[in-house]
Design goal:
- The complex is a heterodimer.
- By secondary structure, chain A is mainly α.
- Chain A contains 11 helices and 4 strands; from the N terminus they run E-E-H-H-H-H-E-E-H-H-H-H-H-H-H.
- Chain A has one domain (about 5-285): ABC transporter involved in vitamin B12 uptake, BtuC.
- Chain A is globular.
- By secondary structure, chain B is α/β, with parallel strands linked by helices.
- Chain B is built from 9 helices and 10 strands.
- Chain B has helices spanning about 45-50, 75-80, 100-105, 115-120, 125, 140-150, 170-185, 195-200, 220-235, and strands at about 5-15, 20-30, 35-40, 60-65, 70, 85, 155-160, 185-190, 205-210, 210-220.
- In chain B, helix 7 links the parallel strand 7 (about 155-160) and strand 8.
- Chain B starts with a strand and ends with a helix.
- Classes of the chains: A mainly alpha, B alpha/beta.
- The interface of A and B includes residues 178, 185, 193 and 195 of A.
């Protein structure tokens, strides 16, 4: 058997794969955060709550209405997206012109309210959510077994990230978005309905978080406590560069892999490695790896 | 034909937060006319254009555009009535290419110039169409800011200090463009500090001081009132 630095190859590849799966979640979640920050200048602390709601709605749809995984993959993000639009219209719009700190505090409050509500209604116990039959089992790659669901998580996350990148960088709607991000007042004075774009951006951003939540449901116990994992995603966004779409996606994947490899070679450090990298990046390149300093 | 007011600004007050910047400004612009707002720095000319576009804070008074009261309208709705705004700082987007900048504003009326016509009017833009917006020179950025609103079919152009900081040859070129636009029956409001640039182009001139209009001069009176005007403007 081949060893790399004393670690058997299949074990290393297994961790690498797990890292890639985690990285896919980081990429999806930081993508939503980056879109929202780039366009609205809001540090959305409720992002983890939206991710949790995605998973919880997937479980509720199955448990209460017998609606399975595939429809839930569309329905849960839609519900959470509409909920996000409500929050943007009713709350965030009122503080749009103020310092971003107000947005952070407000969304932090929203996250606490949502978390509390879900804990009261459904308790903190984890609910099982099974992998859909089409995705159970594994591919035998010869040198390792690749669980189908993990492959699906990686492929679907990357597809969503790629689609978002294409939409933002290569379409006319994306040009509107980029213009509104750079100079919202002028963009509106040129005839573009910026308030509605802001609303939709927030809806899509939190919808992507909910999509990640549904994807995560079969990989972990579904519970209102899921939202606590979000802190590491904020670190990913800071490392990638606040507001940089492509930066947050690539950094998400990269850090997932780095975390996976740390678990193999230095397991004690795996929980903090992302934060150590964040400190290093902030010291050496404060705008982030892909951010533009102003 | 009886000239009709396309834009009528009456007793317009505008604020930036607590700061009161327009103190009851009044002026009218007839369809097809070129009007210039002249004045010293800080007199309120730029704020007047921004207030018309809905870009200042609170506003009171009246802004009638083509017979409609627009004082409470959001900026995008005002633009969609056929208003093209060219801001003082030019507002070229760094994240967009020259051509993306050009194609960005949605159409707000029929009869906008085609991209070919615009490239004919501003040949430099054709050569630089793939460059990033802010890699263009000051003159090219100004031409792009103008071209951008001419494509949309806007019939009322609000142009803020378009000659500022540009080489004389480019200022001359912009003057020619304004003359061509006048021939095409565009309605134009020129905010200018450069009296020599604005005076030959404007059918009427309004001098703004302390956020209100203190003097109106029509083109025919220009020669006899030149000294008075220069005194007002401190030229």
């Amino acid at each position: 058997m081949i060893d790399i630095f004393g670690v058997p190859l299949p074990a290393l590849l297994g961790q690498l794969l797990l890292g890639l799966v985690n990285g896919s979640f980081y990429a999806l979640l930081s993508l939503g955060l980056a879109i929202i920050f780039g366009m609205l200048h809001i540090i959305n602390f409720a992002h983890g709550a939206m991710y949790m709601m995605g998973a919880m709605f997937a479980w509720l749809l199955l448990d209460r209405l017998a609606i399975g995984y595939w429809p839930a993959l569309f329905i849960a993000p839609l519900i959470v997206g509409v909920f996000g639009i409500g929050i943007e219209r009713l709350l965030l719009r009122r503080i749009a012109r103020l310092d971003p700190l107000y947005g952070l505090l407000l969304t932090f409050g929203v996250a606490l309210v949502i978390g509390g509500l879900f804990r009261t209604l459904f308790g903190v116990g984890g609910q099982p959510y099974s992998i859909p039959p089409e995705l159970s089992g594994a591919f035998d790659l010869g040198f390792m077994m690749l669980p189908k669901y993990r492959a699906w998580v990686i492929v679907s996350s990357l597809t969503v990230c790629l689609a978002a990148w294409y939409l933002i960088e290569k379409t006319r709607l994306g040009a509107f978005l980029r213009a509104a991000t750079e100079n919202p007042a002028l963009t509106q004075a040129l005839g573009i309905n910026v308030p509605i774009m802001v609303m939709l951006t927030f809806g899509i951003g939190v919808g992507i978080a909910a999509f990640a939540g549904v994807l995560a449901a079969p990989t972990a116990q579904v519970s209102p406590l899921m939202s606590q994992n979000i802190i590491v995603v904020f670190a990913v966004v800071v490392i990638g560069g606040m507001g940089s779409i492509i930066g947050s996606v690539l950094t998400g994947l990269l850090l997932g892999v780095v975390e996976g490899l740390t678990k193999v070679f230095l397991p004690e450090a795996s929980a903090v490695v992302v934060f150590v990298i964040m400190v290093g990046v902030l010291l050496l390149r404060p705008a982030g790896l892909f951010g533009r300093s102003k | 034909m009886i000239p009709t007011d396309f834009l009528r600004v009456a007793n317009l007050h505008a604020f930036y937060g607590e700061s009161h910047v327009l103190h009851g400004i009044d002026f009218t612009v007839r369809r097809g006319e070129c009007v210039s707002l002249l004045g010293r720095n800080g007199s309120g000319r730029t704020s007047a254009l921004r207030a018309i576009m809905g870009l200042t804070g609170r506003r009171t008074g009246s802004i009638m555009l083509n017979g409609r009261e627009i004082i409470d309208w959001a900026p995008h709705r005002i633009a969609q009535l056929g208003v093209g705004y060219c801001p003082e700082e030019r507002g070229i987007y760094a994240g967009l290419s020259c051509e993306e900048n050009l194609m960005l504003p949605p159409r707000v009326g029929s009869g906008g110039m085609s991209v070919e016509e615009l490239y004919e009017l501003f040949p430099n833009l054709y050569e630089r169409r793939h460059s990033q917006g802010t890699r263009l020179s000051g003159g090219e950025q100004q031409m792009l800011a103008m071209a951008r609103i001419l494509r949309t079919g806007a019939r009322l152009l609000l142009l803020d200090e378009i000659s500022e900081g540009l080489a004389p040859v480019i200022v001359q070129r912009l003057g020619e463009v304004i003359r061509q636009l006048k021939k095409r029956d565009y309605t134009i409001v020129l905010v200018e500090q450069n009296f020599r640039f604005a005076a030959p182009l404007a059918d009427r001139m309004f001098v703004v001081e302390h956020g209100r209009v203190v003097c109106e001069i029509v083109q025919d009176e220009l020669d006899q009132k030149r000294e008075y005007l220069q005194e007002l403007l401190g030229v």
